[in-house]
Amino acid sequence: MGKIGIYGSSFDPITNVHLWTASTVAHRCKLDKVIFLPCSSKRKDKTMKTSDTHRWEMLQLAISNNHTFIADDHEMLQEAWEVYTYYTMEHFKQKYPDDDVYFIMGADLLVDIADGKWKYDEKLISSNKFIVMARDEINMVKTISRSPILRNHDNGTRFHLIDKGLSMEISSTYIRDEFAKGGEPRYLLPDACYEYIKKHELYSS
Question: Under which EC number(s) is this enzyme classified (predicted)?
């Protein structure tokens, strides 16, 4: 039995922080694979700044030399109303029935679940395992404690909390803004992705 982490984001573009985070989580949690899952561009709550094709190409370029990393376009191909984390996790548990599958997320998303902002939240929490990364000094233990759904399903293995050394905040938004305003974000993302963005003139203002 292996251990697989599902790492979803817009990856618009993928950054060195995404890669470093995935590598660190894989190392600390002894994951055999990390699946990079670009989110659907059809979602109402997110607006992509470039096309699915470009996001997918940059992701492939970024992870090509790491055998632990896999790209999966499952959510990209879904209709917006079918893109819920509960359904996504059911898909990957069926795809990898002999492995332990974890959902990797930031503590900010844990807060959103505690605040009742996620659909199918109880089904999601009760049937999955999570790797939660520190964000913005959020107290993850208190977040779990104050939420009936989270605390009542916390069986000791449900949530793997990583609260040390994962606080780099350089974001895709920061990098897009640098490209748009004539900045120089070269070493914040993989060289191949940097060259791809320049070649295709992505994120220009």
Answer: 2.7.7.18
